[in-house]
Design a protein that fits this description.
Length: 158
């Protein structure tokens, strides 16, 4: 998508377009890893990363990024490594802020709430981390709560 827009705007030749496609693919991969890393960070916030949570993340990555299971599992491995090496969530939210629209960031928060409630309860550490993530993504607290309530209703939780 980025390369098509750049080619249209700047009327680039095929060699330049090929370089942009590689650049776009690298950006897309970074965004995928950053989003996946946020899911992993949140899943581990309560001190355990269950198989149910892992499966949710993999299924969400395949659906969201339209990739196969093999790619989603590789994405998980890359993201887990990045999480271990990271100093803070800002490494991931910074990438997302740079390239996601506000609507995409709100959808991400909504899906993070779905992850939180996969076990039908919310741990205080999960609550704290999702608030921190939403703050760094410039999502209003009102919108965060709106998404939370929406997901809880969707899942039949009180």
């Amino acid at each position: 998508m980025l390369s098509v827009l750049k080619k249209f705007l700047f009327e680039e030749d095929d060699d330049a377009s090929e370089r942009l496609n590689k650049s776009d693919n690298e950006i897309e991969k970074k965004l995928q890893v950053a989003a996946c890393a946020l899911f992993i960070e949140l899943a581990k916030a309560d001190g355990k990363f269950t198989n149910e949570e892992r499966n949710y993340v993999i299924n969400h990555m395949t659906k969201c990024f339209k990739v196969d299971d093999k790619y989603a599992n590789e994405l998980m491995r890359l993201a887990e490594r990045r999480v271990k090496e990271s100093v803070s969530i800002y490494e991931f939210t910074g990438e997302i802020n740079e390239h996601f629209t506000q609507e995409q960031k709100e959808k991400l928060i909504e899906n993070l709430w779905r992850l939180v409630f996969t076990d039908e309860k919310m741990h205080a550490y999960e609550d704290h981390l999702i608030k921190k993530v939403s703050l760094t993504l410039n999502i209003e607290h009102k919108k965060l709560i709106e998404k939370k309530l929406s997901v809880k209703a969707e899942m039949g939780l009180k």
